[in-house]
Amino acid sequence: MAYDEVFLALADPTRRALLETLRRGPANVKTLAAPLPMSRPAVSQHLKVLSDAGLVMCEAEGTKRIYAIDKEGLAAVRGWLDTMWDDALDAFAAEAHRRAKGKLP
């Protein structure tokens, strides 16, 4: 997974709004576009960016496309962020331990 692509996708407020809507469950473009001030083709372009980033998946249902959050894609991003957080906490604990032993800079 290309995390740059994920974070670029998440940087856009419209795409974040689409993900928020999809949190409630799968939806088609018509449903996703209804509350947004843009056309369905524009929403489809945003969904393609999210799909390319591995955050959304699409399934054909007749002539409709049903979009849903890709849980595996989100899990991969969360795992990466958790690793970063764990490393930061470990570094903080090591520094606190070093300072507690009186080895101040």
Quaternary structure of the protein: single chain
What is the ordering of alpha helices and beta strands? HHEHHEEH
The profile of the biggest β sheet is: 3 strands, antiparallel
Helix proportion:
55-70%
Low-confidence stretches: none
Would you summarize the structure shown here?
This protein is α+β, with helices and mostly antiparallel strands.
Report on the architecture of this protein.
- The chain is 63% helix and 13% strand.
- The N and C termini lie far apart (40 Å).
- Strands 1-3-2 form a three-stranded antiparallel sheet.
- 14% of the residues are buried.
- The protein is built from five helices and three strands.
- By secondary structure, it is of the alpha+beta class.
- Helix 1 runs antiparallel to helix 4.
